[in-house]
Amino acid sequence: MSKNTIKTVILLAFIGGLFMLVGQLIGGRNGLTIAFFIALAFVGFQYWMSDTIAIKAARAVPVGEAQMPEYYAIVRDLTQRAGLPMPKLYVTPDMQPNAFATGRNPDHAAVAVTRGILEICTWDEMKGVLAHELCHVGNRDILITSIAASLALAITFVSRFALFFGGGGDRDGNLFEQLALIILAPLAATILQLALSRSREYEADRCGARMLGDGEPLARALAKLEAGARQVPMNIPPAVAPLFIVNPLSGRKIAFKNLFADHPPTEDRIRRLRSKEWAN
Q1: Which of 220, 219, 229 is nearest to 269 (CA)?
Q2: What is the pLDDT of residues 141-192, one digit of tens each?
Q3: Which residue has the higher pLDDT, 38 or 85?
Q4: What is the Cα–Cα distance from 197 to 110, expressed in whole angstroms?
Q5: How far apart are CA 104 and CA 154, in angstroms?
Q6: Ramachandran region, residue 166 (left: φ > 0; alpha: ψ -120 to 50; beta: rest)
Q7: Whole-angstrom Cα distance, residue 211 to residue 198?
Q8: By three-state DSSP, how is residue 97 classified?
Q9: Which residues pair with 111 in a beta bridge?
Q10: What's the half-sphere exposure (Cβ side, CA atoms, 13 Å) at 206?
Q11: CB 239 within 8 A of CB 229
Q12: Could you list the active site residues?
């Protein structure tokens, strides 16, 4: 088990524990039960609708093999290496170079690339990008990140409800501590969720490099994509941004950027790929 996988388990456990703590605080055992079903509803919606939401948000259109034979040939080769079913393939009209994968499981997966990435990356570099995206599919990262995002959203929802309508399963407890938890829990959940997202990106980089036996194609592609994302804006909802291989909103200024980033620093990803950390 890789370090990133262990980190994923720990982060998910922390988010789940925080969720249970907030539910217990707000309404005791009944509050925990209610909060659980709220989280379940959020997770279910994200899980079943993740592909539809992402594809529509990116304005992606399906492409056939006759239209893009190289695209199909690369993905078919990589899926056979990984033992995965062939996903649906899409292209988005965006000129920002980028790509993403979505779908609730490998049998219902989709991979999309932008017009921009097709213009600046060689097919060898595209192979590195597509290997990364198929690793997300094979590792079921859409499910993992959907659970984390849904729990964070549920914590925010339940905390806001408690803040405005009152709550507290332990009425004899310290009111200040309860209020502090209700206010800070959503922030903590978001930070943990984003840390998990960064961990899954590192893991997909490692997996993709191993699939090809070479990290250089992806490293070269990431350098191009990072520069392109800063120069060419993309108009998508922030909720969809974590799906992309590099942050499509990286041109926006964000306070405490590393703490609130859903992607690890691209220069660090490139360093890891070129130093062959993926081979360990």
Answers
A1: 219
A2: 887 877 777 677 777 776 766 666 555 544 444 566 566 666 777 787 788 8
A3: 85
A4: 19
A5: 20
A6: left
A7: 20
A8: coil
A9: 89, 101
A10: 17
A11: no
A12: 133
